[in-house]
Amino acid sequence: MTASPPDARPPLVLASASPRRLDLLARLGIVPDRVVPAEIDETPAKDELPRLLAARLAREKAAAVAALAPGALVLAADTVVGAGRRALGKPADAAEARRFLQMLSGRRHRVSTGVCVVAPDGTRRERLVTTILSFVQLTPAQIEDYVAGPEWRGCAGGYSIQGRAESFVRFLSGSHSNVVGLPLFETAQLLRGLGWLRP
């Protein structure tokens, strides 16, 4: 009896410390070989639109980690909440999370995720996915109650749609997994296009 041939795919490195992205990849049956968070400056450039910021940061994260992981296929992503032209990243503290929720209350906003994959030979593929959401008008008590909990921590825009904040969403158009932090359809397409994920 002959042994099965070894997997010819390169190791997959996730350039993110987000546990949400690990959970989302697991839905595709994917477990990265390594997790290497990218150390980059995430400060928006002057007048940089939220969706362009998400695309640029994903690209820069992928490049930074690819330099540290030769021979690997690197997957990076960055999610930005856009309220008009303003990018809402991860709130630094509860006060900023409160301000973000007040800003999103009763209005439509966009969540954009840039996804970038770099193959061992340097080939780069990218996608930018945007989902449109609308929140109900939040009461001060709802905002205070939400900020008193842990869900806002480490989440763009100061909320986690896979938790209690999903009850704030009265309208959503586009990818739900994108709002969580990684658009699964587009990510799978990128990995298939590079031959890493089987059809």
From TrEMBL:
The keyword DNA repair does not apply. GO terms for molecular function: hydrolase activity. The record marks 20, 79, 162 as: Important for substrate specificity. SUPFAM superfamilies: ITPase-like (SSF52972). Pfam families: Maf. It comes from the Bacteria. It is an enzyme of class 3 (hydrolase). It catalyses: dTTP + H2O = dTMP + diphosphate + H(+); UTP + H2O = UMP + diphosphate + H(+). Its main location: cytoplasm. It is found in: Cytoplasm. Its EC number is 3.6.1.9. Its cofactor is a divalent metal cation. Keywords: Cytoplasm, Hydrolase, Nucleotide metabolism. The active site is at 78 (proton acceptor). The keyword Nucleus does not apply. Nucleoside triphosphate pyrophosphatase that hydrolyzes dTTP and UTP. May have a dual role in cell division arrest and in preventing the incorporation of modified nucleotides into cellular nucleic acids. Belongs to the Maf family. YhdE subfamily. This is dTTP/UTP pyrophosphatase. It comes from Roseomonas elaeocarpi.
